[in-house]
């Protein structure tokens, strides 16, 4: 709960930063010539992102470093932690700054049709970040090598064959233990480079448990859960840009002209409010997906009980609350509580 409250306070402060920038830009820019749209967007995004990072840094440090070490979840040194933060911020400025610059350029180039062109561009960006980035960006933070344990590898490849999941990129391990004690397994990449990635922290688990976790991940893949969530996010983005268009029209050219910094801030605020509004709905879908994958895992894993004991281990290892209050799950959790998952898994395994 401490983490949740720190996160909420930080979000509220970051939203305050956005509002402050909005009023500042609305006041400072009125009547001035617009200038270079791309530069406006890039600089505006960078200034705001830097300020938000500064404001949230103490909370980030408390949750991601102090608590993580106190609870024995992290192995990372302070310089290592700070260096990862810097790399993350540099990436954010590069991607977000360029996106904001292009957003304003589109606005200036197509004064009437800009909103749907910008919406289309942002959907493409979301697809790029969700599908391509994990493969391109993960090596910035972690190292990968083919899974050394041959017996385990053969067993996991047999599982892939049984489920008819088209995963051709093999089984890899990732040096998660260099930063954290959290354990993780995932299918990443697309097309022929789609592969299974196990965190090396998962390798202390029994083969039954690892197989059950992988079967759960395969179900996400087979059920096309990632494309479904991307489609939902895209719909939200398109709607958000559409609303931004009306908000900017409502503010009028006396306050905001197309291509001005304030356009970036207005759209940003609208997307954040919209995101917060629809997030509980997205989470309902996400939790339903998780149950479906648990069920799939109980059907395809060789041994029974692997998934349950893996969930209990993960929960202890990551110090997650096994049974958080219902409202916390409803508002913030993409996964059902471990208690609920164990109860359902037990009923499926009995059936
Ligand atoms: Zn899952």
Explain what this protein looks like in three dimensions:
With 351 residues, this protein is mostly helical. Helices cover 72% and strands 5% of the residues. It is built from eleven helices and four strands. It has helices at residues 2-29, 37-70, 78-109, 114-141, 150-163, 207-222, 225-251, 261-300, 306-317, 326-332, 338-350; strands at residues 144-146, 171-174, 185-188, 195-199. Strands 1-2-4-3 form a four-stranded mixed beta sheet, with helices on both faces. Helix 2 (37-70) packs across helix 8. The longest helix is centred in the C-terminal third of the chain and has 40 residues, at 261-300. The protein is elongated and about 70 Å long. The two termini are 36 Å apart. The mean pLDDT is 87. The structure holds zinc ion. Zinc ion (ZN) binds next to helix 6 and helix 8.
């Amino acid at each position: 709960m401490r983490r949740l409250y720190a996160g909420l306070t930080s979000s509220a402060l970051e939203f305050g930063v956005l509002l402050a920038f909005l009023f500042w830009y609305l006041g400072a820019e009125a009547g001035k010539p617009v200038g270079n749209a791309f530069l406006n967007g890039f600089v505006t995004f960078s200034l705001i992102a830097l300020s938000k990072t500064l404001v949230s840094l103490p909370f980030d440090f408390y949750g991601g470093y102090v608590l993580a070490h106190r609870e024995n979840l992290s192995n990372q040194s302070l310089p290592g932690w700070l260096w990862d933060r810097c790399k993350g911020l540099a990436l954010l400025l590069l991607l977000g700054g360029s996106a904001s610059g292009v957003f304003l350029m589109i606005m200036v180039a197509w004064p009437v049709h800009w909103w749907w062109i910008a919406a289309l561009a942002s959907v493409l960006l979301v697809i790029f970040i969700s599908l391509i980035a994990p493969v391109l960006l993960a090596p910035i933070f972690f190292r990968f090598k083919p899974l050394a344990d041959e017996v385990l590898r053969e067993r996991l490849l047999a599982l892939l064959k049984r489920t008819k999941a088209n995963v051709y990129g093999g089984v890899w391990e990732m040096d998660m233990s260099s930063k954290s004690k959290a354990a993780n397994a995932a299918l990443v990449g697309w097309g022929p480079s789609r592969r299974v990635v196990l965190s090396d922290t998962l390798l202390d688990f029994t083969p039954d448990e690892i197989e059950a976790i992988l079967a759960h991940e395969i179900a996400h893949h087979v059920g096309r859960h990632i494309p479904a969530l991307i489609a939902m996010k895209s719909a939200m983005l398109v709607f958000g840009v559409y609303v931004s268009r009306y908000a900017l029209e409502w503010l009028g050219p006396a306050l905001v002209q197309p291509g001005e910094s304030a356009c970036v801030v207005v759209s940003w605020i609208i997307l954040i409010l919209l995101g917060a509004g629809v997030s509980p709905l997205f989470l309902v879908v996400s939790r339903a997906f998780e149950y479906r994958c648990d069920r799939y895992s109980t059907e395809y894993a060789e041994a029974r009980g692997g998934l349950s004991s893996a969930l209990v281990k993960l929960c202890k290892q990551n110090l997650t609350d096994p049974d958080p209050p219902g409202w916390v799950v409803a508002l913030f959790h993409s996964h059902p509580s471990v208690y609920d998952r164990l109860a359902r898994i037990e009923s499926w395994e009995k059936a």
